[in-house]
Amino acid sequence: VQLQASGGGLVPAGGSLRLSCAASGSTFTSYVMGWFRQAPGKEREFIASLLWSNGNTHYVDSVKERFTVSRDTAKKTMYLQMNNLKPEDTAVYYCAARIRTVPDFGFWGQGTLVTVSS
User: Fold this and answer.
1) What is the chain's Cα-based Rg?
2) Average pLDDT over residues 7-36
3) Average pLDDT, the chain
4) Angle CA(113)–CA(116)–CA(118) in degrees, nearest 5?
5) For residue 46, with 0-12 CB atoms within 10 Å meaning exposed, 13-18 middle and 19 or more buried, which class applies?
């Protein structure tokens, strides 16, 4: 399984950005996909997940109602639409995948940097 994240950049507070995660190496029908982020000086944190088979999503409270995870099964690509961005959203964002029956995310893409200016 290979994951390739992209779409990061510099955006003003209140702005929007969409990240992409191109996936390959599997049909992903038995996978849970995730988005994580790591802010400067902080540990990496989970922010959202998506069940590839049916598109069900889950978010942490800090991004709920601002971020939306979706996928395009034909393109094998997962997206993270981020709206109303805040300076505290500044971080390196990572996409990841795990098999549904395995608790830990074992497959990771490289990070993409999102910087939100105040």
Assistant:
1) 13
2) 96
3) 97
4) 155
5) middle
